[in-house]
Amino acid sequence: MNEQSGSQFFHGACPHDCPDTCAMVYEAKDGALVGVVGNKEHPFTRGGLCVKLKDFHAHHYNPDRLLYPLRRSGPKGSGQFERISWDEAVATIGARWRDIIGEFGSQAIMPYSYLGNMGLVQGINSGDPFFNRLGSTVNEKTFCASGSSTAWLLTVGPTGGVDPESFVHAKYIVIWAANSISTNLHHWPFVLEARKRGAKIVVIDSCRSRTAKAADWHIAPKPGSDGALALGFINAIIEQGLVDEDYVDRHTYGFAELKERAADFTPDYVEELTGVKAEDIKRFAMEFATIQPSVIRVGVALERSAGGAQAIRAVCALPALVGSWRHVGGGLLQMPLWEFPIDWVKASRPDWIRPGTRVVNNLKLGAALTGGMPLDPPIKSLFVYCTNPVSQAPETNRIVEGLKREDLFTVVSEHFLTDTAKYADIVLPATMAGEHDDMMWSWGHFYLTYNQKAIEPRGECKPSSQMWRLLAREMGFDDPVFSQTDEELCAAYINWDAPQLGGADFAHLKEQGFLRINVGGPDERAPHAHGNFPTPSGKVEFLLHDAKNFVAPPFRMMYEAEQSGEPVDPLPGYAAPRETPQTNPARAELFPLNIISPKSHGFLNSCYANEPHKIKGQGEQFVIINPGDAQNRDIRDGDPVRVFNDRGDFQGVARVSEDSPQGVIVATLGYWRSLNRSDGSVNCISSDAWSGLGRAPTFSDNLVEVRRAN
């Protein structure tokens, strides 16, 4: 970019696990990063940055940042390390791995990553080629969106759905299980613009979030009951004669069977299951069907209970039943990801995976490390990058127990000495986004975004890409992918000949900084006005035949084999949550409250949760509790409280509020256990059980008790 006043300006792209993927501009002066602002030219993010990113340049200079490789010098978890060189770190890793491979085989080594960085070159999948070449255990990564993706792909196929920018044309907007103001901020102005044009905003969420408070109508089902609610809506649409029969006849498959399935879910029955009044169920059905275009934005939180992914199949049926897809701005938005021309095979190299290689899921790390699953060979080395499982994974106490094993050789690539990194044997310092090149796709809009290196890395930090090159050389791998530069990798992982790019090339993207893929403009895109769904039938598939459960390949290093393959219910349905007072009364005798753990407003998962000013803005770990539940436990607003079950516990400060319904508490995640009141955080109490499809997590399907803490 241009140069002025002694400063240089570079294209930036937010690397974080957020649907907005903000286009940014870095300002560098005298070799230092002195400013980061939003790129005003970007049509979706429009120059704005969220509270997490607005001082991103200063984050690069946090005094606690890791700048040099470290080797553990004290007990695991003590945080005691000594500085070593990169040569020594890489040689140590290579020597330990060769010993492990010689004794146990290469599958005794397990990579572990997620969306701490979304980039194609530096992020979640960046290590796939190296570990697939090494022959390690395949890492299945299903923290979020896997269950919704399986449901989506089974029902409507790999379509990007409604353009988020097209929401300005909608007249009835439903935001289901998403807190847009905190986690999808740049979509919110499009929703507000639609409201100015007369649209109604409906939020379906079990608690009263910031977004729910800003809506025209908040519908609050009991946690995990969304599938029943969606089937109740289907029932009410059918019984009130609101079905778009022409669209259903032409562009859906299995309506008769769906109608029979939904017949049992009368509004009165659904009120018993969900707590949503029968008249509200009928009213929603009437409005959603008759106020067109109507559109649903599906949040990833919808999948986080035993029946969450099945619920999403039912939600996917709603726009087709009433013909919402006919209109610009009508239909359903899950993730635009599916239409991006990314060469995932080239990015992950699944051709190097040896037949029969096992798969271990991220959510089961505690079990994998502590003998809770039959693994032969056992995990003898863990390599963690782009994630912080001791904060973000379920059953974290069990993970900590596993990380303490003296026979487990753990390597962590990080920016800070996180709760996970404290248990490492070797810590490798990673660059931040202003210090490397990368290419960003998005799961919230239709733009590719290029991230330019603006400054040299601080200290001895290295990009993930360079880390893989060094390890590949250490392990004797001379394949071409391990000698390509970051710019070459950015270009290589995109299918530039794909029609979605309309003839654009990498040079064009580098110059502009972002590029909208060619999927039709937001004022004209109506991808399924005439059907054309990318499913086997070309239709919305309410009914499936012989479908098997699966995790989409990008979530599992592009490995197609060793899927779980359980039979999938032919129709959308309601699977009750596992842990509620109604479904598990014996457990509820001990732990009577449901807990919801949404993302924090001031943190990005666990990123920034160690920044004092971010903690000040977010507030210390809090627990929202309904006044009735608080009174029963002699808890007052501001009291320190302990939340616990038989899996673990954490402490926080009580916020007594009607924002949480009676019987439900809310505690946002991301807080570091080492910085909390006690050595615990929200996911200490979370079960590692999967949802029904896509091996999705069940973070919102847990029972706990709350007591005042001394």
From TrEMBL:
Domain 4Fe-4S Mo/W bis-MGD-type: start-end pairs: 7-64
Needed co-factor(s): Mo-bis(molybdopterin guanine dinucleotide)
InterPro entries on file: Asp_de-COase-like_dom_sf, MoPterin_dinucl-bd_dom, Mopterin_OxRdtase, Mopterin_OxRdtase_4Fe-4S_dom, Mopterin_OxRdtase_prok_CS, Prok_Mopterin_Oxidored, YoaE_C
Keywords linked to the UniProt accession: Iron, Iron-sulfur, Metal-binding, Molybdenum, Oxidoreductase
Pfam families noted in UniProt: Molybdop_Fe4S4, Molybdopterin, Molydop_binding
PROSITE patterns the record matches: 4FE4S_MOW_BIS_MGD, MOLYBDOPTERIN_PROK_3
GO molecular function annotation: iron-sulfur cluster binding; metal ion binding; molybdopterin cofactor binding; oxidoreductase activity
PANTHER family attached to this UniProt entry: OXIDOREDUCTASE YYAE-RELATED, TRIMETHYLAMINE-N-OXIDE REDUCTASE
Family membership: Belongs to the prokaryotic molybdopterin-containing oxidoreductase family.
Name used for this protein in its record: Molybdopterin oxidoreductase
The species this protein was found in: Methylocella silvestris
High-level lineage: Bacteria, Pseudomonadati, Pseudomonadota, Alphaproteobacteria, Hyphomicrobiales
